Amino acid sequence: MLWVVASLLTLVEDVFSEEDNKEAQSELQRFLRQPSWPPANDLEWDSSIDTPWPQALEEWSLMQDEEVHQGRWPRSPRDPNSPRTSRRNRKKSKSSRDCHVEKKEMRVRDLGLGYDSDEIILFKYCVGTCHSSRKNYDLALKALMDNGSISGKKVSSHPCCRPTRYETVSFMDSQTIWQTIKWLSAANCSCVG
């Protein structure tokens, strides 16, 4: 700050007369000699002064808390017989019948794709039913098939658990050549149809 003030003084030197310049310099020197904060020992704490603010502030905050709690709806009591699940685990508590991915270690030779390799890969596949995902279309189609209005063996009246994303699998065959099979393993399963 001293540098800024000093540089400003040199710039305005031409504007002021010598008297004004001397007066401004003495004012600056007086300003710079004064400490900006009073020493700590000059400050005295007068404990005889009683300020009502801390007590009033505490009473006000308690009143605010009370008003907030009165404005809330009371929580209904929890049924002690119901199982307690957290929000994080609700998806995991789905029925094992719902559509999901399962994994199994398999030899490449056992996949039936014609590759000769004893290498073991992690094969992921879709398992489960989609009865909970049926829409009005599926319900109406099933009713029409049951009453004979629509006949056909190739018509599916319910969604099917199928991969919606696939993973590529790479392995080395018996001739030590790297092979890559696209769309082999399920990365995600969902009810389709």
Could you explain the architecture of this structure?
By secondary structure, the chain is of the alpha+beta class. The chain has a domain at 96-192: Cystine-knot cytokines (Cystine Knot Cytokines, subunit B). Helices cover 29% and strands 23% of the residues. The protein has four helices and four strands; from the N terminus they run αααββαββ. The protein has helices at 2-11, 18-33, 53-71, 136-146; strands at 100-107, 120-127, 160-172, 178-192. The strands form two sheets. A two-stranded antiparallel ribbon has the order 1-2. Strands 3-4 form a two-stranded antiparallel sheet. The mean pLDDT is 75.
Tell me the number of helical segments per DSSP (H or I, 4 or more residues long). 4
State the helical fraction: 25-40%
Give a count of the beta strands, DSSP E runs of length 2 or more.
4
Structural class: alpha+beta
